[in-house]
Amino acid sequence: MQRRSFLGFCAGFVLFVASCSGMSQAQEDAGAFILKLADKALTALTDENITNAQRADRFRDLLQEGMDIPTVASRVLGPYVRRATDDEMKEFISLLEENIVRKYAIMFKGYSGKSIELIDTKDLRGDAQQVTVAIQRTDGEPPVDVRWIVHKVDGHDKIIDIIVERVSMVTTQKEEFVSVIRRGGGKVEALLSELRERNAELAANVQD
Predict the structure, then answer these.
(1) 129 vs 31, 59, 84, 105, 164, CA distance in Å?
(2) In whole angstroms, what is the distance from residue 176 CA to residue 77 CA?
(3) Which residue of 86, 146, 147, 181 has the smallest Cβ count within 10 Å?
(4) Looking at the DSSP assignment, which residues form a beta bridge with residue 70?
């Protein structure tokens, strides 16, 4: 995962302290969804008394609750999603989720959040909504703009993209993954193999 986009996701995930007043009912739903996840993350992931393995398990639970991983997986495969077999797609979803968990759960250890400002929430096409916040930084630099794209899955809000300073997580990840597949002769298995290796290396490097 590229540092700029997904570091913003991980930081933004635990930083929400804002008011949803003045929104429409639909906007309140999207804003409340993000706030609820943030509250859970602050409680579950920054506990100094848990192991890295426990933190990873908690992060996985939050990720499954908050993100539409199958949709994200389909989008980041780009044109190659049509070439993936059912078994390859199933494994890719699992490997993608594990990669996110292994790579970013540890970042919450010893974390202390900073303030943010809710900028707005607006409707997009279909049932999608965009929640925009500005995360205050401690280095004197301007706030970081983070936009969460949310849609409905079986009546529940799920994140399908995070845009940090105009850089889309999905677009960035698609560029990387498509490049890996192309280098592998257009085979989705090439990406699966690389993700297996990455996840095994990340698991070996994380010590409690």
Answers:
(1) 9, 24, 29, 26, 16
(2) 9
(3) 86
(4) none
Domains defined for the chain, CATH in brackets: 3-184 (3.10.450.710)
Name the percent of the chain lying above pLDDT 70.
Answer: 77
Both tokens assigned to 4: 């700029």
Q: Please give the pLDDT value at position 24.
A: 46
How far is 96 from 195, CA to CA, in rounded Å?
8
Place of tokens 């630099």: 141
Is the pLDDT reported for residue 27 higher than 70?
A: no
Find out whether 164 and 5 touch, Cβ atoms under 8 Å.
yes
Convert the pLDDT of each residue in 7-23 to its tens digit: 445 444 444 333 333 34
pLDDT: which is higher, 37 or 68: 68
Answer yes or no: are the C-beta atoms of 172 and 72 closer than 8 Å: no
CA neighbor of 93 nearest in space, from 200, 206, 197, 188:
188
Q: Where do the H-state alpha helices sit in 105-187?
A: 169-183
Q: What is the per-residue DSSP string for 58-78?
A: HHHHHHHHHB-HHHHHHHHTG
Mean pLDDT confidence for 85-102 = 95
Q: Cα separation of 161 and 148, whole Å?
A: 6
Whole-angstrom distance, CA of residue 108 vs CA of residue 39: 14
Write the CB contacts of 12 (distance below 8 Å, at least 6 apart in sequence). Answer: 116, 133, 135, 144, 146, 148, 162, 164
